Amino acid sequence: MNPLIAALLGIVEGVTEYLPVSSTGHLILASHALGHTGDAVDSFDIVIQLGAILAVVVHYRRLLLERTAGLARRERASVQLLLALVLGFVPTAIAGLLLRKKIKALLFGPGPVAVALVAGGVVMIVVELVRASRAKRAATAPGAVDPGLVGLEHVTPARALVIGLGQCVSMWPGSSRSMCTIVAGQLAGLSTATAAEFSFLLGLPTLGAATVYEAYKSRDVLGQIGALNVVVGLVVSFAVAWAVIAAFLAYLKKRGLVPFGVYRILLGAVVFLLLVR
After folding, report:
1. Is the CB of residue 237 less than 8 Å from the CB of residue 216?
2. Measured between alpha carbons, how far is 263 from 106 in angstroms, rounded to an integer?
3. Maximum Cα–Cα distance for the chain, whole Å?
4. Domain boundaries, the chain
5. How far apart are CA 15 and CA 55, in angstroms?
6. Which residues of the chain fall short of a pLDDT of 70?
7. Residues 173 and 107: beta-carbon distance below 8 Å
8. Among 131, 209, 262, 270, which residue's CB has the most CB atoms within a 10 Å radius?
9. Chain center to CA of 112
10. What is the DSSP string of 18-50?
11. pLDDT the model gives residue 277
């Protein structure tokens, strides 16, 4: 690997980490397209998530500082958010410890990624169509159920656990952690934007733990990549992810996820066609 390849993979990570299109899936496809495969590259793809994690910390720095100070004062909103993050994180942590090796051995390839891309795209479109129908009824029928609750205060422990279970599905490369948690949040009654915000915050413990664990377990093979390339990948992914977070949240306040679902299906179809050639 060289700094240019590392920067390109950093761009892919930064663009796709918080969009519901699967950063890991895109990194696997990009790595294969660039001719860089193997355990070292797979570990590099996971470790550069640290850049995207730092982007969330910077973007939500005020909220994180307020909630941290609120914990010291035992404020209800701060305690509830912390509990929600813990409940959202624990199921994935347990599943990750049990299935990490099998997932890397069986699912880190273009074929499994294509399957997950298409399946996730279909799920997103179906959920969005159902929610659009509910929103239409809410606008025309008195007493109809609102399609989504707005605000992190609505992320109750029960909803957080549902989102955490949904996040477990994202361990299949190509399914997308962002997609799984946002859709789970939608199904739990949250608005798309609120589900996305909680998804970003839930990425702090989830991606942070995965990155640290992978860096430790793969410290020997990561040496094949080179420290400079790792740093380049981290810096680029941070800068790009920071820009994407703000743009994606602004988009979700006005529109839904259908375009991303269509994109996933088309990309998965292209990968299938290339594999059978």
Report:
1. no
2. 25
3. 63
4. 3-276
5. 12
6. 137-147
7. yes
8. 131
9. 17
10. TTTT-HHHHHHHHHHHTT--SHHHHHHHHHTHH
11. 75
pLDDT at 213: 82
Q: Residue 8 carries which side chain, given as an amino acid letter?
A: L
Cα–Cα dist 45/8, whole Å: 11
Q: Which pLDDT belongs to residue 144?
A: 44
| C-alpha closest to that of 205 among 213, 193, 194 | 213
Closest CA to 111 of 36, 29, 35: 29
Per-residue burial over 202-211, b = 16 or more CB atoms within 10 Å of its CB, e = otherwise: bbbbbbbebb
What is the per-residue pLDDT for 147? 62
β-partners of residue 190 are 149
Phi, psi of 243 (to 5 degrees): -70, -40
As a dihedral over the C-alpha atoms of residue 34, residue 245, residue 136, residue 175, rounded to 10 degrees, the angle is 40
DSSP string, 52-81: HHHHHHHHTHHHHHHHHHHHHTT-HHHHHH
**What does the alpha-carbon distance between residue 119 and residue 115 come to, in Å, rounded to a whole number?**
6
DSSP annotation of 2: -
Coil, helix or strand for 190? Answer: strand
State residue 140's pLDDT score: 53
CB proximity list for 222: less than 8 A, separation 6 or greater? 40, 43, 44, 47, 215, 230
The strand pairing partners of 80, in sequence order, are none
Distance, CA of 118 to CA of 174 (rounded, Å): 9
User: Tokens 């420290």 label which residue?
Assistant: 227
| Tokens 């993979």, residue located | 9
Strands (E), 125-168: none
Q: In this predicted structure, what is the pLDDT of residue 31?
A: 86
Residues 6+ apart with CB under 8 A from 106: 112
